[in-house]
């Protein structure tokens, strides 16, 4: 289970950081997609920065829970927008990612309790 946790954690960090970077550098695909839902370039950069910072925090055990919450919230926004756009398969994948972030939060809470006992 420990190896599964580490693999999932690495994948989630990669997803959050790469997703954040594409928004911060204003990739044309992201700008085009999110602009249809009222995201200006400034809002998209802030949104991407939140994903990027959350992804970095996710990689650091002391702030992992906060990072996971930030990433989960940004992914929830993405899932909602994807559903509004009619991209249900990608929205489902994004929701599965949120579930995996929940698993990371649960495991991190368990590890925190073990350290304090």
Question: Key features?
Answer:
about 120 residues, mainly alpha, elongated
Q: What radius of gyration results from the CA coordinates?
A: 15 Å
- List unreliable stretches of 5+ residues: none
Based on Cα principal axes, name the global outline.
elongated
Question: What's the pLDDT, averaged over the residues?
Answer: 95
What profile does the largest beta sheet have? none
Strand count: 0
Structural class: mainly alpha
Distance between the termini: 22 Å
Strand content: under 5%
* Helix content percent band: over 70%
Number of helices: 5
Helix-strand string? HHHHH
Question: Could you outline the blueprint of secondary structure elements for this entry?
Answer:
Elements: H1 2-24, H2 28-35, H3 41-58, H4 64-84, H5 88-116
Helix pairs in contact: 1-3, 1-5, 3-4, 4-5
Explain what the structure shows.
The protein has 117 residues and is mainly alpha-helical. The chain is 85% helix and 0% strand. It is elongated.
